[in-house]
Amino acid sequence: MDSLNSLLDGFGTALTPANLLWAALGVLLGTAIGVLPGIGPAMAVALLLPVTYGLEPTGAFIMFAGIYYGAMFGGSTTSILLNTPGESAAVVAAIDGNPMAKAGRGAQALAAAAIGHFAGGMIGTILLVALAPTVAALAVDIGAPDYFAIMVLAFIAVTSVLGSSRIRGLASLLVGLTLGLVGLDQLTGQQRLTFGSLQLADGIDVVIVAVGLFAIGEALWVAAHLRRGSGEAIPVGRPWLARSDVRRTWKSWLRGPLIGFPFGAVPAGGAEIPTFLSYVTEKRLSRHKDEFGKGAIEGVAGPESAASASAAGTLVSMLTLGLPTTAVAAVMLAAFQQYGIQPGPLLFEREPELVWGLIASLFVGMVLLLALNLPLAPLWAKLLRIPRPYLYAGILFFAAVGAYAVGGEALDLLILLVIGLIGFGMRRYGLPVLPAVIGVILGPAAEQQLRRALQISDGSVIGLVDTPFSVAVYAVIAVLLAWPLLRGPAGRLRRAKA
Q1: Which of 98, 164, 450, 465 gets the highest tally of CB atoms within 10 A of its CB?
Q2: CA distance 159 to 157
Q3: How far is CA 195 from its chain centroid?
Q4: How many CB atoms lie within 10 A of CB 481?
Q5: What does 73-92 look like in DSSP terms, one character per residue?
Q6: CA angle centred on 327, ends 368 and 72, rounded to 5°
Q7: C-alpha span between 32 and 345 (Å, rounded)
Q8: Exposed / middle / buried, residue 45 (Cβ in 10 Å: 0-12, 13-18, 19+)
Q9: Which residues form the DUF112 domain (predicted)?
């Protein structure tokens, strides 16, 4: 009851004209920035930090929250329409969203993503209000073996459901893990795969890898086959969801937050793992398994709902523990410190107006995001009417600008081209792109957690399975690995009986 009363007071703060203006401005800026490859929400908030020096803290954080959610949806827009994720959380949306767009259903894919963001954000924020102390306590108890088990689950899950074979999925994952090794070893300081270049000592940024594999690789692939195609613009399609689409997606919209929120709340969480696991779950539960990878609307609705809910989950650890779980949360933590505010267990007592105003503004931002982007879905989808030579030339330009903006180094453009050629080769030989991106994102973190777990257990492998949580995760992994082996003989037995 106290939380409900505090939330009502927060709505009184968030619904003032000035704070409504900051929320609307944040959603608009976030959506626009999310559309640009390479410029994600973390960079947007970081760039706007100096601008907010003169603002009241509550208004500044309300705008930051709007940028966060808006950028996540903007990233899914280009991911769906152009196969170019604006940020890492939008990678999964390209798997089925882009085939839908190519089939003339881009508006439906964008509508499913917008409603998914709204549903996930609303449910995630409700869970934030109700479960913040409990989830924060659970997050503190999760150790290095548990993190490593979760990441192994993500590796196995994504290589099991994508591509024409597991071997190709594992080969793609190996490419990503190799790219993730570039840079300095975090424990020993030794250079790995840097070829003596100081610019590579910090490693290859995930954004450059994602943009190179998706945008540059796709543009080169289209250019190589442009003469074979008709070259005609792709139709936009009807600007609404049919009843059959709603029947297929409403369960996905509700399942996504149950996966996204807990992963967003734990350290080393974020939106990447839950979006991948949501995609795997939707494929397992769907009656249209053959459509996945070719334009299944559930493959857009579920992961986008999970991504939005994970954004609410990240605020749990940041507000209650002062522990950032994503890059955006880290930048927002720096913003708190800029105002002389220290997030932690006492924040709700010392700054109740700011905290509950921020939480209430999340509900307001979700409504603004849906009201802004749902009517604009057909307009965004008209990007596909641009002739493909001009469209992909623009993609190459913005991809290069986004990659250069990451570090401001000319070498980043060369790395982008090399990774784009790798993406082209992967398409040529049928390797799925997503496991490679997974390897780059989670590979370094998995290595760090593995080493930490082995150090705690004095090098004993038993230390990786000495918690009930890790044992449960490895049991799920065993089921994923054994299921195809068990399903084959069972299917043959059924056919023999028939």
Answers
A1: 98
A2: 6
A3: 31
A4: 12
A5: HHHHHHHHHHS--SSGGGTT
A6: 30
A7: 35
A8: buried
A9: 20-437
Tokens standing for 175? 């490419």
Indicate the Cα dihedral angle 186, 187, 188, 190, nearest 10°: -20
Instruction: Going residue by residue through the chain, which has 498 residues, state the pLDDT in tens, using 9 for 90 and above.
Output: 567 777 888 888 888 888 888 888 888 887 777 666 555 666 666 666 666 667 788 888 888 888 878 877 777 887 887 777 756 677 788 888 888 888 878 788 888 888 888 888 889 888 888 876 565 556 566 778 888 887 888 788 767 655 557 788 888 888 888 888 888 877 777 888 877 777 777 778 776 787 788 778 877 887 777 655 444 445 555 556 778 888 888 888 888 888 888 877 765 556 777 888 888 888 888 887 778 878 888 888 888 888 888 888 888 777 776 666 666 776 777 777 777 777 776 777 777 788 888 888 888 888 888 887 777 766 766 665 677 677 777 778 877 877 777 677 788 888 888 988 998 988 888 887 778 877 887 788 788 888 888 888 887 888 888 888 888 888 888 887 787 676 666 556 666 665
95 burial type by CB count under 10 A (0-12 exposed, 13-18 middle, 19+ buried): buried
Query: DSSP 3-state assignment of 38?
Result: coil
Q: 3-class SS at 191? A: strand
User: What dihedral do alpha carbons 273, 277, 279, 283 form, nearest 10°?
Assistant: 160
Rounded CA separation 353/11 (Å): 10
Q: Which helix (H) or strand (E) holds 184?
A: strand 183-184
**Helix, strand, or coil here: 192?**
strand
Which of these, 83, 142, 76, lies nearest to 110 by C-alpha position? Answer: 76
Give the global pTM. Answer: 0.66
Residue holding tokens 């790395």? 415
Widest Cα–Cα separation across the chain? 76
Tokens matching residue 145? 């073996």
| DSSP H stretches of helix in 213-286 | 217-225, 243-265, 272-285
Q: Spell out the residues 6+ positions from residue 153 whose beta carbon is closer than 8 angstroms to its own.
A: 277, 473, 476, 477, 480
CA Rg, the chain, in Å? 22
Residues comprising the chain, all counted: 498
Count of Cβ atoms closer than 10 Å to residue 492 Cβ: 10
**Dist. CA 104–CA 99, nearest whole Å:** 9
Under 8 Å CB-to-CB from 372, ≥6 apart: which residues?
A: 27, 28, 31
